[in-house]
Amino acid sequence: MRLTLSNFVNYTSFMKFHYSILCILITFISYSQSVFDQDQVIEKTMSQRWELDDEDKNGTFKLTFYKPIFVLPARWSSNPNELPQSESLENSFTEVQNYDQVEAKFQLSLKTKLIQSFLFGHGDIWLGFTQLANWQVYNDPVSRPFRELNYEPELIVNFPMKVNLFGIDLRMAGLAFNHQSNGRDLPRSRSWNRIMFHAAFEKDNFQLYLKPWIRIESSDKDDNPAISEYIGRMEANAIYNKNKHSIYVIGKNSLDFDKNRGSLEINYLYSVKSNLRLHFQAFTGYGETLIDYNHKQTTLGIGISFIDW
């Protein structure tokens, strides 16, 4: 191929872009290794992650990890959502978007305790924040846009518990006010608010989180009126850790027996060094992101993970 000025500029831009991605990954890895032990896989109990027992209390306003933190440079979709729709016509696309089947996906998630041992010394209040990004990083014809960014702040009231139920321990329960949105204008805008209840169980290397919720109906215009019929009304997270291997499964369901919908996400992680892990992710169903809340697809992703549940 003949080298032209245009080709040279494109090649230079390409190399600068991938150098930036590499720098981001190195920063993540360095930070992860500086926080955690460098030779052993650090598996934290539910009490250590949520400071349930007295010996695990760490006070307030200290940032800790919340949901899994991962980077998937390659995520393939069986059915890219090129014409996002909503029951609200204002929030429906009229032109097909030129999206690639392969994009990048990453998630950041942190929490901090605002109040410790309130209500007669039995409860904690946490502030959590999660950001999920889907990036058309390989789609040069449309300037590599972020296809979707989801922001999820939540205020969590949590109560430590020690109740044995059929051989498994109920370790905590509570509720949260959860807001999720993509911060976009029309027709991309999607958002909803929920009161989420939770109960968490633990037995040896196994953890189970059950999260039913009630949607708070919007008094103004609703970006996605039927979102509960697709993403669902309940979530279950099952986590199993064994040596260098971790599996966590996230299932969501509409709890509607006539039109049963939801999603299933399976994650497998293998520890390379300490909390740096290879991460394989498979998703099928509705609502992988807010813009896809009523769009069904199957996706496969591969990358690295730094923190899991």
Compile the SSE list and pairings:
Layout: H1 5-35, H2 46-50, E1 64-65, E2 69-77, E3 102-117, H3 118-121, E4 123-135, E5 146-165, E6 168-181, E7 191-203, E8 206-216, H4 227-230, E9 234-242, E10 245-253, E11 262-273, E12 276-286, E13 296-307
Antiparallel strand pairs: 1-3, 2-3, 2-13, 3-4, 4-5, 5-6, 6-7, 7-8, 8-9, 9-10, 10-11, 11-12, 12-13
Please give a structural write-up:
This protein is mainly β. It has 2 domains: 35 residues; 267 residues, Beta Barrel (Outer membrane phospholipase (ompla), Chain C), CATH 2.40.230. 14% of the residues lie in helices and 49% in strands. It is built from 4 helices and 13 strands. The chain has a 12-stranded antiparallel beta barrel. The chain is globular and about 55 Å long. The N terminus is likely disordered.
The fold-level CATH name of the largest domain is Outer membrane phospholipase (ompla), Chain C
CATH architecture classification name of the largest domain: Beta Barrel
Largest beta sheet: strand ordering: 2-3-4-5-6-7-8-9-10-11-12-13
Shape: globular
Assembly type? single chain
* CATH-level-4 superfamily name of the largest domain: Phospholipase A1
Enumerate the spans where pLDDT stays under 50 for 5 or more consecutive residues.
Answer: 1-19, 32-38
- Number of domain units: 2
Estimate the helix proportion, in percent.
Answer: 10-25%
Strand content: over 45%
The main pleated sheet reads as: 12 strands, antiparallel, barrel
What is the H/E string?
A: HHEEEHEEEEEHEEEEE
Kindly, what is the distance between the CA atoms of the first and last residues, rounded to a whole number of angstroms?
49 Å
Helix run count: 4
Write down the CATH class of the largest domain.
Mainly Beta
Average pLDDT, to the nearest integer?
89
Q: Which structural class do you get from the secondary structure elements? A: mainly beta
Count of extended strands: 13
CA radius of gyration: 21 Å
